[in-house]
Amino acid sequence: MNDDAQQKKGLTRRNFLKSAGGVAAVAGMAAGGLAAGVREGSAAAGSMPKKWDGTYDVVIIGSGFAGLAAAMEAKNAGASAVVIEKMAVHGGNSIINGGDFCAPGTRLQKEAGVQDSPDLMYNDMMKAGLYLNHPELARTLADQAKDALEWCENYVGAKFTRLNFHGGHSVKRANQTVNASGSELVNKMLAKTRALGVAVQTRTKMERMIADKDGRIVGIEVKTGYRFPDEKSGKTAYIKARKAVILTSGGFSNDVPLRRIEDPRLTEKFESTNQPGATGEALLAACLAGAMDVQMDWIQLGPWTSPDEKGFGNVPLFCERLVGYGPMIDPAKGKRFFKETGNRKERADAIILLGHPVIIMGDSYAVPKQVFPRALEKGLESGAVKKFDSLEALAKNYAMPVEAFKQEIARWNSFVEKKKDSDFDCMIFPDARPTVTPPFYAARLWPKVHHTMGGLVIDTNAQVFGFDLKPLKGLYAAGEVTGGVHGAVRLGGVAMADCVVFGRIAGKNAAKETAWG
Amino acid sequence: MNDDAQQKKGLTRRNFLKSAGGVAAVAGMAAGGLAAGVREGSAAAGSMPKKWDGTYDVVIIGSGFAGLAAAMEAKNAGASAVVIEKMAVHGGNSIINGGDFCAPGTRLQKEAGVQDSPDLMYNDMMKAGLYLNHPELARTLADQAKDALEWCENYVGAKFTRLNFHGGHSVKRANQTVNASGSELVNKMLAKTRALGVAVQTRTKMERMIADKDGRIVGIEVKTGYRFPDEKSGKTAYIKARKAVILTSGGFSNDVPLRRIEDPRLTEKFESTNQPGATGEALLAACLAGAMDVQMDWIQLGPWTSPDEKGFGNVPLFCERLVGYGPMIDPAKGKRFFKETGNRKERADAIILLGHPVIIMGDSYAVPKQVFPRALEKGLESGAVKKFDSLEALAKNYAMPVEAFKQEIARWNSFVEKKKDSDFDCMIFPDARPTVTPPFYAARLWPKVHHTMGGLVIDTNAQVFGFDLKPLKGLYAAGEVTGGVHGAVRLGGVAMADCVVFGRIAGKNAAKETAWG
Fold first, then answer.
1. What residues of chain A, 266 to 325, have a C-beta less than 8 Å from chain B?
2. φ and ψ at B233, to 5 degrees?
3. Which listed residue (B259, B321, B344, B504) is catalytic?
4. pLDDT for position B31
5. Chain B residues within 8 A of A31 when measuring between CB atoms
């Protein structure tokens, strides 16, 4: 009858007064802000396990870029650490990510003669984010992205060999991994993490955060041997976090019930680019333990996905390398309809407004020059990318009005010659050439749910804030599970930087916490 | 050492298995959704008071339209009830509201020959809300608004005597109280509530929601004798809610720390139209007890407020009656710049983009015809509204280029003659006339924070949802403290309908709950 005893336990007058004394310390709270005693009403007080099945200084949930960066930094700062991962394989979305790491002032930018700065990157992020970004977080990311990239190269050993452009950025600043995939980085991170002596336990799902009476997160309840998505699988265990828990569980693009609450349009009719485990239960478990969420209704649709392949596929790599080199066409009219280098939200909204898929295309100069050979090859293999001997053949395949389309291509080419798009203000790169040389390549585009901008509120130390607007002791977070870094729109190529910058910060700071027991 | 004992209490294997059995019942949860045991980690379990200072079936927090509607319905359904209000006076923002109650198919619409329907109102709400609205909530409001208005007239005894238009609506559907203020309704609601035997306790602030071990809300901790904004004032007491707590505490337009987390642009440099007590601590206390928030980053700026008066002032009533009858002018150019009848967000964004205040103006036909006499009189008295003998004098006062301005007025007048605005597609009402007859009246406009669209997730029963995506037993909510009804943008005149419709639903459903003790 433990639970009844607990229910009868009173909040004593003495305890109330004790906590009331803390009110004056609530920094920055306006009149009418949260008052005494609130923390006592939160979190998992009273649910401590009788025994812990494992004890570490730092417990990291999630094994993508952010989680592994956090694990390495925590371990290197002298903390014992463990990484748990609910899926059967490590890497989460990071392992299927396109491998573009935006940072200003990098080696590849210098080699390409690209002028860039943290200020420019910060301004691009804020503008795309509709200024909803938490400025200090966007600033931290822009300031530390280059250092984080160099850590990935020099410490982790990942290779970055190509400079790419993403819509919404002022310059080319996406440093791409040698295999055009996040797997290059995340696999090397995993090897390094293990070499440091940190275990990465797959099939281990966090069920609940455990807090002490003051609301401090002191550990987690997990299921080991969990087989996604079988919620009846696995065995309960308790892991004690002497210093802190770090949540790096990613976003919720594949969590239809949650995303329908945040943005009711995003029913099961919209596919996602994410791995199946990109669901929000870990984020929600943190909220149930008192953590505050923010801007959860900003859910990004990728404008470069194809209805002709599953998941992320190869078309995004095809499309994003071509924007600024080839036109995007509404097949119903054979005309362009939007700025190809516009940001993700603008482009996805424009396509959804048309109500049908559009095409992105390039010629035999632009495509081999821009598109990663394997992505092109795989796209052609699956049929998601098609190859045509003439503009007429291309038009016919997509049932486009041929003459209107040919006129539009001529118009586009005149813009490319002048390096100025008078219709939609698309950025046209210095090395772009008119789209004239067959064969032509094209792919259909229709948006898929790609990234969830919102998540837990963190400060520049990656410490999570609670609904009492105070730091939530014992809980850090980094990567897509956090909110505020990107505001309304995450720009392409900024996720890797986000995860590595804040993952490292979280790991270092978690290791500095005072151990509770 | 109660707290230590509590901390040591374990979550037993038996309890874990018991709750695990409930997983299959989680309706609508995708794979990877919340699993067993989460509810045990939430809310205020373990913080029950030793004794209750008062016991009611239903405890209502907030004394605006929603709270009083809930109180009356709960009482009329046979429940005992109490209303607590943290401020010294009842009524919250409702008492300073403009008194416009949007509903389709009303008596005043019929008298004016206006064709309207719940479908039309629903579509207007969804379009303005950028389709982020929870459709079933918007539908409930549109379907029940007319009945709610008639309840206010026939049961409460409030008088509605005039039909107004608000930007973003397809037709005139705002039924205005006889004194152009929400006080007409809220004061009569208060009298009726008291006549029913329900006490309304002012200076009583909710500090914390109290939950039992299963997370059910069973009461609240309050401070009686609280003197806003002194957080050290007042005396702790506990009120037991045998059936339910209903949260109707309003929005957080005046809570700078909270609104800066949700939308970091909204620093203390932006004023608010709201009463000083419009802060978010009650909403946050609900979140700390496990309630889920949604769309909190959609914070509405009123485009019709003036920098020349404090708070809401009189200019909004001047401005909103004139749109569609007189032009809105950018004084820097002497030109119109946006659709006067556009929705609030569009107009506020357009003004912020200009970066300086604009003016709204009308002539001596439009102004006396449209503007409530007392609002005009008070505006003129304070100097926020000015009167000019000629267009030249008006232009001079705002340092406008005179000739450009006069040309623009001539252009506007040509649109009014044709009843079609070729520049910005402003709605021009059938009875509008060209702006030609002196004296002319004008006021400056600069946005202020007006309404917070986001808040607690509720269902159509006004029951609050938790972060486990399940109904949170014992907690209902209505009015501005809830989210999802309006999506991205609340249209003018829909707040009263929102509060009364969902306040009534909450009161009726709370009264039907099974008492727990």
1. 276-277, 279, 281, 284-285, 287-290, 292-298
2. -80, 160
3. B344
4. 28
5. 228-231, 276, 279
Q: Do A254 and B42 touch (CB under 8 A)?
A: no
Three-state secondary structure along B81-128? EEEECCCCCCCHHHHHCCCEEECCCCHHHHHCCCCCCHHHHHHHHHHH
B374 an active-site residue? no
Eight-state DSSP code of residue B230: B
Least Cα separation, residue A309 to chain B (angstroms):
23
Task: Please tell me the predicted confidence (pLDDT) of residue A5.
Answer: 37
Amino acid at B8: K
List pLDDT tens digits, range A420-471: 999 999 999 999 999 999 999 999 999 999 999 999 999 999 999 999 999 9
Name the residue among A344, A353, A346, A356 with its Cα closest to residue A320: A344
| Active-site annotation holder among A259, A344, A444, A490 | A344
pLDDT of residue B16 exceeding 50, the answer is no
**Beta-carbon separation of A285 and B36 below 8 A:** no
Residues 477-496 on B with a CB inside 8 Å of A are 484
Q: Which of A8, A288, A465 sits opposite B467 (nearest CB)?
A: A288
Q: Do B45 and A42 touch (CB under 8 A)?
A: no
The CATH H-level (homologous superfamily) assignment of domain B41-303+449-517 is FAD/NAD(P)-binding domain (3.50.50.60)
Burial of residue B446 (number of CB atoms within 10 Å: 0-12, 13-18, 19+): buried
Of B213, B221, B256, the CB nearest to A6: B213
Kindly state whether A133 is in contact with chain B, defined as any CB-CB distance less than 8 angstroms: yes
Q: Which of A129-133, A328-332, B61-65, B505-509 has the lowest mean pLDDT?
A: A129-133
Instruction: Yes or no: say if B259 and B450 are a contact pair by the CB < 8 Å rule.
Output: no
Could you report the per-residue pLDDT of A170-219, keeping only the tens digit for each?
A: 999 999 999 999 999 999 999 999 999 999 999 999 999 999 988 999 99
Peptide bond into A118 cis (omega under 30): no
Task: Give the rounded percent of residues in chain B with a pLDDT score beyond 90.
Answer: 85
- CATH architecture for residues A304-446: Alpha-Beta Complex (3.90)
Report CA-CA distances (Å) from A514 to A58, A445, A493: 11, 51, 35
Q: What does the domain layout of chain B look like in residue ranges?
A: 41-303+449-517, 304-446
Phi-psi region of B311 (alpha: psi -120 to 50; beta: other; left: phi over 0): left
Nearest CA in chain B to A295: B297
8 Å CB contact of A10 and B49: yes
- A41 pLDDT more than 80: no
Which CATH superfamily, name and number, covers A38-300+451-517? FAD/NAD(P)-binding domain (3.50.50.60)
Tell me which residue of B455, B309, B428, B295 sits closest to B366, measured CA to CA. B428
A14 contacts on B by Cβ (under 8 Å): none
Distance CA A163, CA A111 (A): 9
Contact A256 B30 (CB under 8 A): yes
A77 CB burial (10 A radius; 0-12, 13-18, 19+): middle
